[in-house]
Amino acid sequence: MRTVEWTPAGVRVIDQRVLPGTETYHTYATYEEVAEAIRTMVIRGAPAIGVAAAFGIALGVRASVAAGEDLPAAFERICQTMAATRPTAVNLFWAIERMRRQFEHLRAEKTPEALIAEALVAEAQAIHAEDIATCRQIGRHGAELIPDGATVLTHCNAGALATAGYGTALGVIRTAVEQGKRITVYADETRPFLQGARLTTWELMQDGIPVTLICDNMAGHFMKLGRIDCVVVGADRIAANGDTANKIGTYMVAVLAQRHRIPFYVAAPVSTLDLTLETGEGIPIEDRAAQEVTHIASVPVAPAGVAVANPAFDVTPHDLITGIITERGVAYPPFTVSLRRLAAGT
After folding, report:
1. Is 251 helix (H, G, I), strand (E, B) or coil?
2. Per-residue confidence (pLDDT) for residue 24, from 0 to 100
């Protein structure tokens, strides 16, 4: 499926807020619209957010050149708008910095502004293509860890919808299935936004991969019964020591997995690493609107006026993680050593 793509009319994305009931696509012609789509979770998932941001920057620069604006000032404004959308996923900032480096290089080369706009579109398209290739590599490395006949538990959605089109955690599962392994999946519903219930199950059913939906508070029960062989989740930011931010509830799953001696794997591209942070304590955690907790599909499920806490992510400590699957291989403890080696490509 095409989660996000560049078209002559603008950035085309699938609206993840209305899945699985309605498969709707929007085309955004301005960078402000792309930023709002990221902010409101029309598009979500760390790698997909990064791709969308790159496309949004390219859109903005193209419009600024056409309007005859001061390009350096306009570029900075566009980047700041994108950076302000969601704070936790480091792929967003990675993509912004990659586009910034290209912009600064082109400016230093005294490239005409019209050609700068074209080059930034090409750079964003390269990020898109690389993400798909990266996810397939993650899938190849991760599939080696999944035994034939395994039942895999996943939390949230780290599939095609969270990336440019193949998936990280679900990419591991897809690749294992493509290799002929008999894989079944248990998908946590992932309250409060229900990405597991609405998105992960939809994706897997589209692919014909057996999936069972469970409530978040059922994971421990099925682990105790021996129904889960391993856990594979995605990530939004990984600190230098391996502490990993992912969708709220991931930490709980990791604790349960350790209690039941079940391997717990994180699947994420190298762009999700944030080696500037020694530990996960420095990862910013996004707080979202109360209505995401008090309502489901605009239907209230809690008393009006109740106090609500709605952190979108939690941090799983590194000592609960068996391995971190990247496109360059699998990092194992001590992560402070293995992650830096993978980041350096050695």
Report:
1. helix
2. 96
- Model pLDDT, residue 95: 97
Count the Cβ atoms, other than its own, within 10 Å of residue 328. 18
Angle between helices 71-83 and 90-108 (to 10 degrees): 170
Supply the pLDDT for residue 297: 87
How many CA atoms does the CB half-sphere of 304 hold within 13 Å? 2
Edge to edge, the sheet with strand 211-214 lists 211-214, 184-188, 151-154, 230-233, 264-267, 323-326, 329-331
Outline which parts of the chain fall under CATH 3.40.50.10470.
Answer: 140-344
> What is the C-alpha to C-alpha distance for residues 167 and 160, in angstroms, rounded to an integer?
4
Structure token pair of residue 197: 């219930």
Q: How many CA atoms lie within 13 A of 242 on its CB side?
A: 24
* DSSP at 274: E
pLDDT for res 130: 97
Positions of E strands within 128-183? 151-154
CATH 3.40.50.10470 fits 140-344, yes or no: yes
Q: Report DSSP letters for 182-227, one per residue.
A: --EEEEE--TTTTHIIIIIHHHHHHHT--EEEE-GGGHHHHHHTT-
Q: Does residue 131 carry a catalytic annotation? A: no
Q: What was the pLDDT predicted at 2?
A: 85
Q: Point out the residues of the chain with pLDDT beneath 70.
A: none
Q: What is the pLDDT of residue 1?
A: 73
Which one of 236, 243, 274, 314 is the catalytic residue? 236
Q: Evaluate whether the domain defined by 4-136 bears CATH number 1.20.120.420.
A: yes
Q: How far is CA 148 from the centre of its chain?
A: 26
Which segments of the chain belong to CATH 1.20.120.420? Answer: 4-136
